[in-house]
Amino acid sequence: MAKHIYCRHSTELEVPFFDVDVMQIVWHGHYVKYLEIARCAFLDALGYNYTVMLAHGCAWPVVKLDLKYIRPARFGQKIRVNMAMTEYESCLRLSYTLRDAESGDKLTQAGTTQVAQRLDNGEMLFQTPESWQEAVRRFEGFAPLAKD
């Protein structure tokens, strides 16, 4: 069964020289940075970035990361990171597809899960803060789960 997508966002970037290895392809660890760039752009568009999260008393550590490398990215290549949010009430779960911006060829498939954690005592929350949920529901393109 396909996961429900609550909202989508897309970010484009260009592979810098310092991200490639001796084989002239992006070193595998840099893909995590590309996910973070896309996630930060989405959170900015949402109006609930890491600064706002901290102001609401929460840190949001990544607790799960999945990466599947399909084709290598290369220096100077323009990459589009398409992101889909599949959970926001219990955690922040995002799926990513990295594609060549010109051809659309798939380069990498990824996913991250972040949880809200109270700053004052380190307690992990089983439900995300209401302020976060409200920001998500206000996001342009938000698609609520249909009720049966």
Kindly report the average pLDDT value.
95
Helices and strands, in N-to-C order? EHHEEEEEEH
> What is the count of DSSP helices, taking H or I runs of 4+ residues?
3
Question: What is the C-alpha radius of gyration, as a whole number of Å?
Answer: 16 Å
What is the name of the CATH topology? Thiol Ester Dehydrase, Chain A
Task: Profile the largest sheet.
Answer: 5 strands, antiparallel
Number of domains: 1
Please report which band the strand proportion falls in: under 5%, 5-15%, 15-25%, 25-35%, 35-45% or over 45%. Answer: 25-35%
At the first level of CATH, the class is: Alpha Beta
Unreliable stretches, pLDDT < 50, 5 or more residues?
none
Binned, the helix content reads: 10-25%
Bulk shape: globular
Secondary-structure content class: alpha+beta
Task: Describe the strand arrangement of the main beta sheet, using strand numbers.
Answer: 1-4-5-6-3
CATH superfamily: Hotdog Thioesterase
Number of DSSP E strands: 7
Q: From the 3D coordinates, which CATH architecture would you assign?
A: Roll
- Give the distance, in angstroms, between the N- and C-terminal Cα atoms: 16 Å
Family: Belongs to the 4-hydroxybenzoyl-CoA thioesterase family.
Protein name: 4-hydroxybenzoyl-CoA thioesterase
Pfam family, one: 4HBT_2
GO molecular function: fatty acyl-CoA hydrolase activity
Explain this structure to me?
There is one protein chain. This protein is of the alpha+beta class. It has one domain: Thiol Ester Dehydrase, Chain A (Roll), CATH 3.10.129. The protein contains 3 helices and 7 strands; from the N terminus they run βααββββββα. The chain has helices spanning 30-46, 50-55, 130-138; strands at 7-14, 58-59, 62-69, 78-87, 92-100, 106-114, 117-118. The strands form 2 sheets. Strands 1-4-5-6-3 form a 5-stranded antiparallel sheet, with helices on one face. A two-stranded antiparallel ribbon has the order 2-7. Strand 5 (92-100) and strand 6 form a beta hairpin. The chain is globular, with a radius of gyration of 16 Å. The two termini are 16 Å apart.
